[in-house]
Each structure stands twice: as C-alpha cells, then as structure tokens.
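Journal club prep, notes for RB
We'll compare a predicted complex against what the paper describes. Inputs for the adenosine monophosphate case:
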Amino acid sequence: MTEATIFDKIINREIPATVIYEDDDVLAFNDINPQAPIHFLVIPKVQIRTANDINNDNAELVGKLYVAAAKIADEMGFADNGFRCVMNCNPDGGQTVYHIHLHVLAGKALGWPPYQETLKK
Ligand code: AMP
C-alpha cells in the first residue's frame, strides 16, 4: 500500500489549493512557497513516488506533465520568455513530497546553476 501524501488531499479537494489547470490525468496548482514570480506544480492524479519509479508503463502519463506545463505557459503568456521545469528526486535532490511533481518556475530570468556550492573538491 502506497502512503498517501498531501498532494492526494489536494487532488481530492480535502485541503485548499489554487488550481490553475486540471484534466483527466493531471492537476496543476500554485506552490505554497513560491521560488519565482510564477511557481506552480504539475502532478499526475495517480501517485508515482519518485522519478526512480518512472518507467515505460507510466511514461505517457509523465509526458503529460510536460504537455500541461507547455499549455499553461502558453495560456499564461510566459512561453516565449521561457521557464524552468524541475523534478526533485529523493533527499539529495531535495524531494519532500513523495508524489512526483514538476515544478514550473517562470516570471524572471532564472539563474544557473541553481545551487551555490562550487564543484571544487
Ligand atoms: P519538493 O521539495 O520537490 O518535493 O517540492 C514540494 C513542493 O510542494 C514545495 O515546493 C512546497 O512548497 C510545495 N507544497 C507543499 N505543500 C503544499 C501545499 N499544501 N500546497 C501547495 N504547494 C505545497
């Protein structure tokens, strides 16, 4: 049995979220702790715990996260300026909610690389 996460509660409307897009397969809502002027999450309605669980059986569904991101970017008018999609995986990746989600960040020129440490040994 897979442990439910807070995102199941958002899917089931048991807790509030600012939903910006929904279809049969995916839901998108604003991140509660935005890291850019525009920051929302696109999630599958069924739980996939981490990026390590992406496989040929769910590849089409995972692709739909990107389809939704591109559609929202077009509708919200930031597609041409650009945006960043991030999926964190497990502790070193910074994942805190174990239901995969595409972070979509936009609304300013985003720095790269996204971390401060140097790669010097
Ligand atoms: P990650 O650290 O990649 O697992 O990202 C989890 C994201 O979920 C974080 O950016 C949180 O700010 C966001 N988050 C957690 N709880 C909520 C919530 N109730 N509504 C919207 N975003 C949330």
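Talking point for the session: The beta strands are 19-22, 26-30, 38-44, 83-86, 102-106.
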